[in-house]
Design a protein that fits this description.
About 70% of the residues lie in helices and about 15% in strands. With about 160 residues, it is an alpha+beta fold. Helix 1 runs antiparallel to helix 2. The N and C termini lie far apart (about 80 Å).
Length: about 160
Amino acid sequence: MNGANDYLIWAVEQIKYWSPKLVTAILVLLIGLWIIKAVVKVVNRLMDRRDVDISLRGFLKSLLSISLKILLLITVAGMLGVETTSFIALVGAAGLAIGLALQGSLANLAGGVLILIFKPYKVGDWIEAQGHAGSVHSIQIFNTVLKSPDNKTILIPNGPLAGGS
């Protein structure tokens, strides 16, 4: 009977210890998600006013939302006693591995963002790049679509285009 009593005392102590931390962490999580949603709305309105391209707007909203949610989860985990330094190192290593694996795609993504921001050309312009020439049909996040004089569709990666080649 003594073992059951000791276990009950231990369980009550654990509940007393973890309950405030858990309630606080849940509140921080809920308030944090609400704040993230509000920040993304404000940034979206700012991008609307500045007439940011719709493709870039969606990408930037997703990037902002995901980044803030990762920071929020790390904060909440720290509140619950999880060692966050190793978690941050793990996230950094994963980011590095993904970055190296997607190096070419990230160059095209960065090029697409630069093209959408600085607008060196726009839909309808005639450009020559990468040994191809044509009228710009659309500017996408990873590549630019050209229509050649003989009405062929040509995809050119944005990385080299943003670099000026």
